[in-house]
Amino acid sequence: MTTMKTTAKTATQNACKLCNPLGACLAFRGIENSVPFLHGSQGCATYIRRYLISHYKEPIDIASSNFNEETAVFGGSHNLKLGLKNVTQQYKPAVIGIATTCLSETIGDDVPMILKEYRAIMGDAPLPIMIFASTPSYQGSHMEGFHAAVRATVKTLAEKGPKSDVVNLFPGMISPSDIRYMKEIMGDFGIPFVLLPDYSQTLDGGPWAEYHTIPPGGTTTSAISSTGSATASIEFGSTLEAAKSAAGYLEEKFGVPRHSMALPIGIKATDEFFATLERLSGTPMPEKHLDERRRLVDAYSDGHKYVFGRRVIVYGEEDLVISMAAFLHEIGVVPVLCASGGKSGQMKKRLLERIPGMDELGITTREGVDFVDIENEAETLKPDFLIGNSKGFTMSKKHELPLVRIGFPIHDRFGGQRLHHLGYRGTQELFDRIVNTVIEQRQNSSHIGYTYM
Amino acid sequence: MEAKFHFPDPSVIKEELINKYPAKVAKKRGKSIVINDPETVPEVQANVRTVPGIITQRGCSYAGCKGVVLGPTRDIVNIVHGPIGCSFYAWLTRRNQTRPETPTDENYITYCFSTDMQEENVVFGGEKKLKVAIQEAYDLFHPKSIAIFSTCPVGLIGDDVHAASREMKEKLGDCNVFGFSCEGYRGVSQSAGHHIANNGVFKHMVGRNNAPVEGKFKLNLLGEYNIGGDAFEIERIFEKCGITLVASFSGNSTVGAIENSHMADLNVILCHRSINYMGDMMETKYGIPWMKVNFVGAESSAKSLRKIAEYFGDAGLKARVEEVIAEEMPKVKAIIDEIRPRTEGKTAMLFVGGSRAHHYQDLFSELGMTTVAAGYEFAHRDDYEGREVLPNIKIDADSKNIEELKVTPDPELYNPRKTEAELEELKSKGLEINGYQGMMKQMEKRSLVIDDVSHYESEKLIELYKPDIFCAGIKEKYVVQKMGVPLKQLHSYDYGGPYTGFEGAVNFYKDIDRMVNNPVWKLIKAPWEKEAGSLEASYVTQ
Ligand code: SF4
Ligand code: SF4
Hints:
Bound molecules: iron/sulfur cluster
Shape of chain B: globular
Number of helices of chain B: 22
CATH topology of the domain at 61-184 in chain B: Rossmann fold
CATH architecture of the largest domain in chain A: 3-Layer(aba) Sandwich
CATH topology of the largest domain in chain A: Rossmann fold
Number of strands of chain B: 14
Number of helices of chain A: 17
CATH class of the domain at 61-184 in chain B: Alpha Beta
CATH architecture of the domain at 61-184 in chain B: 3-Layer(aba) Sandwich
Number of domains of chain A: 3
Structural class of chain A: alpha/beta
Strand order of the largest sheet of chain B: 1-12-11-10-13-14
Oligomer: heterodimer
Distance between the termini of chain B: 36 Å
CATH superfamily of the domain at 61-184 in chain B: Nitrogenase molybdenum iron protein domain
Largest interface: A-B, 77 and 88 residues
Strand content of chain B: 5-15%
Radius of gyration of chain B: 24 Å
Distance between the termini of chain A: 34 Å
Shape of chain A: globular
Number of strands of chain A: 14
Helix content of chain A: 40-55%
């Protein structure tokens, strides 16, 4: 294998982030009867489809305005209108979620203007709702795209109305299984809720008895409209600012209070989430969840001996990394490096809030890094294992470090879309997997072949 | 070939496929959906731009240039100039394998370099950042070669990757730096990128090293990208036969071998679409003829080996090739005899690539299966109808944008390996010298040929034909399987393979058997099986 030297560098080598419109397409997939549409060349749409499909293992259609050389020079207005017309005719969608690519952003296409023209041309013909998010990849990563699309959706659809008991939940980019679990929790509290985006069925569904142009499932447009009159919004994401978020928009525009919190991973963070639900619903935590919490605490005490004092590098989206780090700290694992390709500039600050003594404990953060940076750090930090997505496998193999796979993308294991991460249940799953990783490593490294560990 | 499958009336099916489209789109798609007749070979509209809003499986020219052609060469550092996504998505996705001779030999295939353009680069230009990136890659690895790939925004902001490459090549001295203008909006599909890549490799790499190559029968393998280890199997067979492989374009290849490739005496082409330009250009400049072969399928591999022996015209080689075939075939035959009773009479559809939809039909017919419909994603008319149609292909705005290199015979190195008379004689013996018959002459009458099949059309086809297997890529996989039909990925091989040569054929037979005869499909009710009852019901009846 080729060895490398540590250097400060300008280029990105083996990136630890994906591009902006990927996140937007994913979010648009969580709206019922919608088709994501990329304004740009077909290559971006094809790549993003291929990439999402390799994780979710479900069909994902993403249309594109199919730029050619002339479009690239003279603007994409004609192509966008034609594309919208064709998508409408083929799919009969309720919503078309339009996101830009680097190309249309570079030439400076004014999409809202083009959409206005399009509506005028189409006259009285019934049109799908068109949601537009600006997502140039030369600003931000897939997380920015995801949040931009959710915010744009709410901005397009939310309406003022008499205050209702509805609670909005904007969970961010979580797994289909996590979404289903969140819905279960809300249901158990008896809270009427709107969860956006809900791709738990569109990206993790069953076989089709009949052919669907658009997979069934997703948040309905009427539910999204009602977010404007909700009693409160809960939004996950430690680094997500109100000015860029859906809940932020609803608070500013309709006065819906925004409860921003970390992704609930670990007991402490999940307790905060449940406490918020108790407050909003006036209902105490249902017995079922108390029970799950008790089992988790029990597991912590049974399993702590395996993991305590272990050193780990955790990487991925900033919000996921922050919540994972806090959870790891809770079980006595030291996240010696918390790394992300994203760069909100807030990672350290937010993590300090969750782990005040982090510096003394040897917990470090780095934003805007790639896998080569992480590998270089690994050489001095000497972690026991890694936690993150499939892209860390190369590093895991080279340095013989076990990898606990979480988040997105997972394309070298089966069932990534069905992993839980959140709440007591998700934490339990994560904890079991982490403990077993440590046990497995110990078992394999003993030549005696113990069957009790 | 005797038809075991009763073809439904293809004109009715064609009508079904297009009648939901708006009139204009229907008219356009109608020209790309053709009822085959191997005798007359009707015209297929191909290599035309996909209509905006119609979802295609096609990628962009950057994908064809970087991902397909240049990606598999292990000792070139590839730097993608552009924002991060384009680079990230092309990172190790094609499963090209490579086998460095020693563990310390250079292998950059697992690396993914990007200039990761930020807003200020888009506004003020990114050339400076690009040059720094080149310097960094050089400092890190001291590679023999660095290639630069332009993505869409680069062309628009006017960065000159060629000038930057030249400047850095000069500055670095011992590193061959060159760039590609393969922005995704050029051309209608990855095919444009293949052409751009061929031009660049020919201009910047081929012919840089005139050292003689040892061996009696020297050839290059063109259009083989070593997916799933395909090239390894072909290398094994060549070695057994005593054939010297000078360079491969580009599976399991090195910069050194490609620079030396003009020392070979024959180019054999597997994927005609992606690399035929190279064959033509090397013929013109160096006098090396090219010949279409196919190593997908056991019979086809045997045939291709015989053709190669015939080309070299050496009695010893011919005898050796026969020995090798006689040695390899019994293993293959044993597996076929076991599997064929289970696959006989089943049907397949192939919509993939620029050559695979053709080549893999051989494997299916070895299994007794009929290909009822096939088409390419990014091929041109010659890949369907044969190269004789080349003079009649209309050049549209999209193809005009791709540079055609002006190639002339090299004053020193031009050396026709065969005289005109010898070539004629070889052709009369059935060798496809500088020629390709295309897919359609091999397909049955009344089968369907569809270019750039749309999502909608493939679903309709499944409903109407109920094929036993559908071959395409991961983008189609899950929608096809939701309808209860197994999908074999022919880009990544579902992480199986190799499928070339004799051992590859055996792998393929086994994989197809496992897929089409798998019990899980009985548990999924497909939309047309109205009488079959629900999921629960099919459990009960088992
Ligand atoms: S931006 Fe252009 S080069 Fe990059 S993936 Fe999209 S179409 Fe291809
Ligand atoms: S051009 Fe931008 S949007 Fe398209 S793939 Fe590249 S980074 Fe992503």
